[in-house]
């Protein structure tokens, strides 16, 4: 498998919200980037997003080099063959299993053997995406958060056949982009969206059922639970289509997740109430 130290060129599939953000952080970290989308207008829009994001960061003195130097490391293309030079590829196309399987089959044919192919999927099975290739051991989830240049975290998702070397590579690569990682098994929604999507949908339902105004739902969750964004504004920020695709996958795979969790009931019955009793899901002094 290709070593992290051998990586010079990063391939990115998709120039949308996530793809152009991933291209930007890779270029900022000093890598050459080839960013591919299906139409040149999408590629141009992606490059424009990168340009304005770099300008904003530059105004805050938050870049290691001048914005044009970083920007010039990214080559936009509509030609899949241009990804042949990539030493790692991150796919960030639409959240659709058939589209992603098609992309991975194409990448498998074009990109050198031993190159890690990562997917930025929010909820889809990494194992199933990998099944479209003859290199399932080199396929891993690298789930960046939105907006990519701002958010510190990346979720590494381990498929059924993902090799340990690909998992190590994924952690190291994300860290090379200045990110911190955690790991999830390949189960629907992984850690983040499995928990986040029901929270967003409940916020939307609370609004729809007249519990409070949009503003008060968002304010209540921010001020009441110390999150930076309420569910409705976060849904808008993620993209309602992305939320819907993710929610449909979770619904299909996991069913009704809104009952109180059994483990909560059992801990309460045992008197383990959290910090105040010194024992909950964690232990406290
Ligand atoms: N938006 C978020 O907050 C977020 C966060 C984490 C992960 N994700 C995941 O990242 C992926 C991309 O999401 P997004 O929000 O950037 O979507 P987006 O709609 O902004 O961008 C997707 C891009 O993929 C392109 N595309 C479609 N088919 C393609 C193909 N065959 N080859 C190359 N490009 C193709 C589209 O033209 C579009 O430009 C999805 O899997 C999504 O679930 C999104």
Named once each, the bound ligands are: nicotinamide-adenine-dinucleotide
Low-confidence stretches: none
Give the spatial strand order of the biggest sheet. Answer: 3-2-1-4-5-6-7-8
The pLDDT mean sits at 95
Structural class: alpha/beta
Rg is 20 Å
Distance between the termini: 45 Å
Tell me, briefly, the overall form. globular
Question: Main sheet?
Answer: 8 strands, mixed
Helix content: 40-55%
What fraction of residues sit in β-strands? 5-15%
- Contiguous helical run count: 11
Number of strands: 8
- Order of helical and strand elements: EHEHHEEHEHEEHEHHHHH
GO biological process, one term: monocarboxylic acid metabolic process
Pfam family, one: 3HCDH_N
InterPro entries: 3-OHacyl-CoA_DH, 3-OHacyl-CoA_DH_NAD-bd, 3HC_DH_C, 6-PGluconate_DH-like_C_sf, 6PGD_dom2, NAD(P)-bd_dom_sf
Domain 3-hydroxyacyl-CoA dehydrogenase NAD binding: 9-181
Describe this structure in words.
- This protein has helices spanning 17-28, 40-59, 67-72, 97-110, 126-130, 164-176, 192-208, 214-225, 231-238, 240-254, 262-269, and strands spanning 9-13, 32-36, 74-77, 88-91, 116-119, 139-144, 153-158, 180-185.
- The protein is of the alpha/beta class.
- The mean pLDDT is 95.
- α4 (97-110) links the parallel β4 and β5 (116-119).
- Helix content is 46%, strand content 14%.
- It starts with 8 loop residues before the first strand and ends in a 16-residue tail after the last helix.
- The protein is globular.
- α1 (17-28) packs across α2 (40-59), α7 (192-208) crosses α9 and α7 (192-208) crosses α10.
- Strands 3-2-1-4-5-6-7-8 form an 8-stranded mixed sheet, sandwiched between helices.
- It contains 11 helices and 8 strands.
- The longest helix is centred in the first third of the chain and has 20 residues, at 40-59.
- Bound molecules: nicotinamide-adenine-dinucleotide.
- Nicotinamide-adenine-dinucleotide binds next to α1, α4 and β6.
């Amino acid at each position: 498998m290709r070593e992290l130290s051998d990586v010079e060129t990063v391939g990115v599939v998709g120039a949308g919200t996530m793809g152009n953000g991933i291209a930007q952080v890779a270029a900022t970290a000093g890598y050459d980037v080839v960013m591919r989308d299906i139409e040149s207008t999408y590629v141009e829009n992606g490059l424009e997003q990168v340009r304005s994001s770099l300008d904003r960061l530059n105004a805050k003195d938050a870049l290691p080099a001048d914005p044009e130097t970083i920007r010039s490391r990214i080559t936009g293309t509509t030609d899949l063959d241009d990804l042949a030079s990539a030493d790692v590829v991150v796919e960030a196309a639409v959240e659709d299993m058939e589209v992603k399987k098609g992309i991975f089959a194409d990448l498998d044919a074009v990109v050198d053997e031993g190159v890690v192919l990562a997917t930025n999927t929010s909820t889809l099975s990494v194992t199933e995406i990998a099944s479209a290739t003859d290199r399932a051991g080199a396929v891993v989830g690298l789930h960046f958060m939105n907006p990519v240049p701002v958010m510190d975290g990346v979720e590494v998702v381990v498929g059924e056949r993902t090799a340990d070397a690909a998992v190590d590579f994924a952690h190291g690569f994300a860290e090379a982009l200045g990110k911190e990682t955690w790991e999830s098994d390949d189960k629907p929604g992984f850690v983040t969206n499995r928990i986040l999507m029901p929270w967003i949908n409940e916020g939307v339902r609370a609004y729809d059922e007249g519990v409070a105004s949009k503003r008060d739902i968002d304010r209540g969750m921010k001020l009441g639970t110390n999150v930076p964004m309420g569910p409705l504004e976060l849904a808008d920020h993620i993209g309602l289509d992305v939320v819907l695709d993710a929610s449909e996958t979770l619904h299909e795979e996991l069913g009704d997740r809104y009952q109180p969790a059994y483990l909560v009931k059992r801990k309460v019955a045992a008197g383990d109430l959290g910090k105040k009793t010194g024992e909950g899901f964690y232990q406290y002094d």
